[in-house]
Amino acid sequence: MKTLINDMRYGMRRLYKQPGFTLIAGITLAIGIGANTAIFSIVNGVLLKPLPFKDPGQLVMVWNRGAAAAGGDFTPLAYSDLLDWRAQAHVFDGIAGFQYGIFTYVGRDSAEQVRGITVSSNFFSTLGAPVQLGRDFQQADETVGSGPSVILSDAFWRSHFGADPQVVGRNINISGTSSTIVGVMSSAIRFPTEDVALWRVSQLRSPTRRGPYFLSGLARLKPGVTIKQAIADTGLVQSSFDKTALLLGATALAAAYLPARRAARVDPLIALRHE
Q1: For a designed S-S bond to 91, which of 47, 129, 208, 233 qualifies (C-beta 3.0 to 4.6 A apart)?
Q2: Closest by alpha carbon to 153, among 124, 128, 112, 120?
Q3: Hey, which residues does 59 pair with through a beta bridge?
Q4: Following CA atoms 153, 159, 163, 165 in sequence, which dihedral angle do they give, to the nearest 10 degrees?
Q5: Is 134 helix (H, G, I), strand (E, B) or coil?
Q6: Helix (H) or strand (E) holding 232
Q7: Backbone dihedral region of 177: left (phi > 0), alpha (psi from -120 to 50 degrees) or beta?
Q8: Neighbour tally for 2: CB within 10 Å
Q9: Is the model's pTM score more than 0.85?
Q10: How confident is the model at residue 253 (pLDDT cuts 50, 70, 90)?
């Protein structure tokens, strides 16, 4: 013990006599500790921490395979594609569509732009993410002409409504339209982008043609079904309009979502849409 104390005293004297060396050593240690902490945080968030969804291994992102100018293997879905896959594909327990957007939330004193996601009514049930307050979207919410329904993110609920449990049923102004809050999502769910403030149910009329292509696809495979089997099965699906086969590009949600979390500090929207 005495030897250790003497060594420490000797070291401190050397550091005191060489301030330049001491400064460089201190900076090197700080950089090393900071880098290791950052790397561990990324590894923990991306690889070690499980995705906050039910049976995440069954979740996949789906796209059309189109011409390079339309997006190549990451061509968005048309609403008619979503309906065709729901009706004809045998490999999914559910398939939902969503679209990124920026909404204007008009509060009591001011208006602000917030990240909003327009989703089909089965989005959260497909994802396996129950709400913490209120209810999930229902098929009836998609009826054209009915008042839009929204589900708030936990962060938006806390920052703008003070975590008020009586918020369910309240009408708020979203982009000039009165929308009804039907639920509040769990704090663990921030899909498909970290800064999402709310999800609004889509209200689309029955398509009269195959396009336009604007939806991202999310699907839950049936137990035991592989991505390869899903691609083969959906390759047999015929379009309701032009009778051409619809081809599926599928990526496990973990492969699509984790890079978005990894790059969330840069731009999770771009990272997710291009993985």
Answers
A1: 233
A2: 124
A3: 220
A4: -60
A5: strand
A6: helix 227-234
A7: beta
A8: 6
A9: no
A10: low
If you count them, how many residues does the chain have? 275
Instruction: Tell how strand 171-174 and strand 92-106 pair up.
Output: antiparallel
Amino acid at 265: R
For residue 228, pLDDT over 70 is answered with yes
Structure-block tokens of residue 176? 């000039």
Tokens for 82, please give them: 């979503």
The pair of three-digit structure tokens given for residue 75, joined into one six-digit string: 């061509």
The β-bridge relationship of strands 196-201 and 111-119 is parallel
pLDDT single digits (tens) 144-163:
988 899 999 999 999 999 99
Q: Is the distance from CB of 61 to CB of 127 less than 8 angstroms?
A: no
Per-residue tokens: 147: 């008042």
1: its two tokens: 């013990």
SS (H, E, C) the chain: CHHHHHHHHHHHHHHHHCHHHHHHHHHHHHHHHHHHHHHHHHHHHHHHCCCCCCCHHHEEEEEECCCHHHCHHHECEEHHHHHHHHHHCCCEEEEEEEEEEEEEEECCCCEEEEEEEEECCCHHHHHCCCEEEECCCCHHHHCCCCCCEEEECHHHHHHHHCCCHHHCCCEEEECCEEEEEEEEECCCCCCCCCCEEEEEECCCCCCCCCCCEEEEEEEEECCCCCHHHHHHHHCCCECCCCCCECCEEEEEHHHHHHHHHHCCCCCHHHHHHCC
Query: What are 1-57's pLDDT values in tens digits?
Result: 667 666 566 556 665 666 665 666 566 666 666 655 555 454 444 444 567 788 888
Cα separations (Å) of 257 from 56, 59, 66, 73, 253? 11, 10, 22, 17, 6
